[in-house]
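Contributing: when you submit paired examples, paste them exactly as shown. First protein:
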Amino acid sequence: MHGGNLAAVVALAARDAGKPGLCFQLLIYPVADYRCASASYEQYATGYGVLEAQTMHWFRNHYLNDPGEALEWRASPLVAADLGRLPPALVITAECDVLHDEGVAYARALAAQGNVVDHIEASGMIHGFFGLAPMISGAVVAQSQAVQALRAAFER
C-alpha cells in the first residue's frame, strides 16, 4: 500500500544522508501527499476499485501519529522543500485512482527541480491494476515498461 511513498521518502533521506547512492526510483501510484485532498479524491472517491477516499483516510489515520504529520516530507514527499538531486524516477499512475493527482504532481515536481523523470499514466486503470497481469493488458504493458526502466537503470 505504501511502497511508492516509502521509496520516495527513502530516496530523499538517502540523498540528505549522502548514502546509499540510489540509482533509480520506481514509484507505482505513490502516496505522495497524505493530506488526501487532491481533486482525484473527489472524482474517484467511490466505485473505482478497492482503494476509495474513505479507505485512504483510514490508512492515514492508522499510519500517522496525528493528521499534522501529513505536512512533513517524511509522510508526504510532495511537500518537501527540496526535491532536487534525486535518482531518476519512473512514476506510474492509474487514471481512475484517488492517488492519481498526487502522483502526477509528484512527477511534475521532481522534473521541475531538475530530476530525470518519466511519467506513465495508465488510461482507464484503477489502483491495484499493476498486479493484475496477465488478466489486464494495461498491467502487462505497465509491467513491461517498469522492467525496461529498471534494466536501463541497473545497466548504467
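Second protein:
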Amino acid sequence: MKKLIVLFLSLIITCSLSAQQSFLSQQRNYSRVRQAIAEKEEIITEKLRQHGLTANNVHILITAFKTEKQLEVYAKKNTETTYQLIATYNICASSGELGPKCRQGDGQVPEGFYHIDRFNPSSSFHLSLGVNYPNQADRKRSNAKDLGGDIFIHGSCVTIGCLPMTNDKIKEIYLYAVYAKNNEQQNIPVYIFPFRMTNINFEIYTKLHENNQEIINFWKNLKTGYDKFFSEMKALNVGVDNNNGEYSF
C-alpha cells in the first residue's frame, strides 16, 4: 500500500513538472525557436542573472514608444509584484502617425493597454507575438465597421501598423515571452504609448495637436496609466468604461 502511495505521489509530481515545462517544450518543436535558444539563451540567462532572475521564475511586461521607436522589456520574479527594466530595443520601422489605430487599413500602430494573445513560431516575419488589438476600449471608441487586427511584435524590418524588431532582436524578446508563459504568466502586458509621456513631453505634443481635443483627451487617459505604472512599477489593473471606452486603473 505504501509503495502504491509513493508511486501515486511520484506520478503527480512528474505530471506537474511536465505541465510546467509543456509550453517551452512545445515551442522547442519549431526550428526557429530552437535556433533562437541556441543563439540567445546564454545572453538572456546572463541578463536575467544580473537582475536576480532566472528563466525558471521570470514574468515580463512590455512597453513601446512610437515617437522614440523603442520597446522595453521589464521583468520580475513570478512571486513578486514590482517590475524592473532589463532590456531596451530599437523599433526598426514604423508606419502611420501619432494617435490610436481606429480602423482597418489606416496604417496606424495602436496606442493603449494590451497583452500578448498569440505566439507564432512560424511567422512570415521570423517570430512574432500577437497583440490583442482591438481590445474593448478600441471597440468602444471606434465607429468603424472593421477595426483591423493582426498587430504583432515581430522580426524583419517592415511594417504596416506593427512593431518590427529585426530578426536578431525578436529572438530575445520572443524567448523572454516564452519563458514567462512557461512560468504560468497568463497575460503578458503590452503598453503602447505615442511618446514617453513625461510632463514636458505631454505639454509639447498636446500643444502640437491643440486643434484636436479628441486625441488630447485620449492621451490624457493614457498618461494616467503611464504615470501609475512608472511610479509603482506594477502591472496595471486595467478596466474600460463601457460608455466612452476610457481606461480606468
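If you have annotations for the second protein, write them as plain sentences, like these:
The longest strand covers residues 112-123.
DSSP finds six helices and ten strands in the chain.
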